[in-house]
Amino acid sequence: MGVVDKVNLPQPVKFVLNWGRKYSLWVMNFGLACCAIELIAASTSRHDFIRLGVIPVAHGPRQADLLVVAGTLTDKMAPALKRVWEQMPEPKYCISFGSCSNCGGPFWDSYSVTKGVDQIVPVDVYVPGCPPRPEALLEGIIRLQTMIADESLKERFERQHREAIIVGGPVGPVDLSNR
Amino acid sequence: MIDHVKEATGAVEREEVTPQGQIALHVTPANWHVVAEHLRRCPRCNFGMFNWLSAVDMEDQGFEVIVHLYSASSLQAVNIKTMVPRDGGSVRTLTDLWRGASFHERECWEMFDIGFDGHPHLVKLLLAEPFVGHPLRKEFLLMTREAKEWPGAKEPE
Predict the structure, then answer these.
(1) Could you read off the pLDDT of B44-71 as tens digits, one per residue?
(2) Strand, helix or coil at A3?
(3) A44-79 pLDDT, tens digit each
(4) A76·B127 Cβ contact <8 A
(5) Chain B residues with beta carbon closer than 8 angstroms to that of A115
(6) Quick one: B2-128 is in which CATH superfamily?
(7) Residue B121 in 3-state DSSP?
């Protein structure tokens, strides 16, 4: 990334940088099932996540900052998700939207469904629901933006443990390293 | 129509009317392709449309392979059914009659391990490449279910 993830930035610089980042999240829509419909509903006029600065339909993963995995990920599809994630430039964030992508959901006993996309990509925000309402995604986005606002990129890249936000769960990031 | 197919091929063991009101022709695995070819090529039958192909695990009796055909000229549907043994059962491929049979036969092969002799490209279709086993066979164990019982009511018998 350059210098911003190597040194601790002065607070005003960090504030302006994070303010710019949190209100221009280009989203890569990885819609796999019915949750993708809720995701699309969140982008249209009634819920309208564009007013939060989330810009739907990045031209490709190389222009995206935020990956939303919405739907049932199968083992066959998992390499494609990994590939999309690795094409995205840092700093990048991932929202796991819906029970299927969180943990397998109703397909918990399936032979072909990946039980949680966090096995493939690191997830920053979990949105539970089957499918979650668009409002749940809006809350996930707002909480992601809150996290970005007081984030130090240096700390983010140096951090060894995994932290994630669970919508409807505890306030603030939860340490998931031991789960 | 059934009498005509019976006379022309001499390969239909018996016929039945399914609960959905469709005709099903039971054949031996050796006559699977013979009957299908007649239904496809004969101008009186003219079953030009391949709807689907699948199999049913009948446990001790083996696997019942079913193909569902439709004729756009007579607006009739017909099933061909055959019983293949559990181990090493196979039938001749129908891809030379209907190109669209290819995906159905690949799926049937990976899910049940039923062979389709003469298929041009019999590789996995839906399952991931490292997957071991044939998940639609009844003896296939769902490992998650082995670790944790199904939490809801038992499925109806």
Answers:
(1) 888 989 999 999 999 889 999 999 999 9
(2) coil
(3) 999 998 999 898 878 889 999 999 999 999 999 999
(4) yes
(5) 144
(6) NADH:ubiquinone oxidoreductase Nqo5 subunit (3.30.460.80)
(7) coil
